[in-house]
Amino acid sequence: MKKAKKKLRWVRLDNAAKIYPAAIRKNWSNVYRQSATLRDEVDREVLQAALDVTVKRFPSIAARLRKGVFWYYLQQVEHAPAIREEYSYPLVHMSKEELRRCAFRVIVYHKRIAVEFFHSLTDGTGALIFLKTLLAEYLEQKYGLSIPCECGVLDRREKPKKEELEDCFPKSAGPVAASRRDTDAWHMAGEEQEDGFLHLTCFRLSVQEVLAKAHQYGFTLTVFMSAVMMLALANLQAEKNPVPMHRKRIKLLIPVNLRKLFHCNTLRNFAMYTVPEIDPRLGDYTLEEIGAVIQHKMGLEFTAKHMSCVIATNVGDERNPLVRLIPLPIKNAVMKAIFDSVGEKKSCLSLSNLGRVQVPAAMEPYIQRFDFILGVQAAAPYNCGMLSYGDTVYINFIRNIKDAELERHFFAVLQDLGVSVTVESNRNER
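Structure (tokenized):
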């Protein structure tokens, strides 16, 4: 008797995910990477076996992008994708054809396991839970460990929970919508890397040293590093444009995880952002002034009431009966136009901090480091991902232009503050 084919799960895209398929273009897709570097060389066969087990626990992440009549949706993949070798640079363009097959990749390079996700699948928090769970399964199979399901490691034998597959945006929307009015930000420019190469520069700092410096100013680590970034951006613009009245606003997009704020345990996208800004036309800013701006902005906006208003604005569009009935090609054209005219003009770049990465104690001896790399923006040359593991902060800059001007200014600000820095790069020598 022929065995019945298992029915694959599918889910509608969450509210934040809907814009990403529409915004795809020939040389850009919204893909980001999370990786772990182990103490030993990765056993590819064991990793493939671990991935085969892990994907069944994550039907909304181990998925492919499908096109419906009115909306895109995600469909669980039947089999785990094959483990890939590393490319010459991270975050190689993910084509529409690849997204239709599988919207994530698992890549091995010596001791490093990297997973690259199309942003419609999940945000940085969900991705980190996927990576930790994959690592736990790999280490159990490879070394015969028994790893407890804690610190974001999920039980692979357990069925996916309903709450993990939930789109938390609609239920978190408030009764009043926030305004979308905003000002444009200064954008960096430079000679584009003609061969598509993406330059990656990683700044490594001591957690203890940076925290001590941040606490001198009364800042958290996120506020301090964001202030350093904005000061570096301001210094770079001043170098390029010596006339203060001709300078544009420096604005930094800082994503905020909403799960604790709204008591939600979804593995899908559930983050918003705050965008602190300074106006260089008003004069030079000190680190203290910039940090105060960021601190007050985050304090004002990182509340359930404010975020519910922002969510209500976004959710309101998809709840409109007329919008629901518009065919997908027309929706795509409209959303792409909105993304191009608004999406990335309102900030210089993103600084996304995943925070402190913790794993079960049994895993710690086997893991050397974690990294988080955002893709470059569609219309701007930079982005930046950040996390800490052990006593090290890892800040990864990525760019598609030749000159490392922002990295130079970022390094200079840290040096002026007396913060020790180690810099790594995948510098292109071609």
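The longest strand covers residues 31-38. The mean pLDDT is 92.
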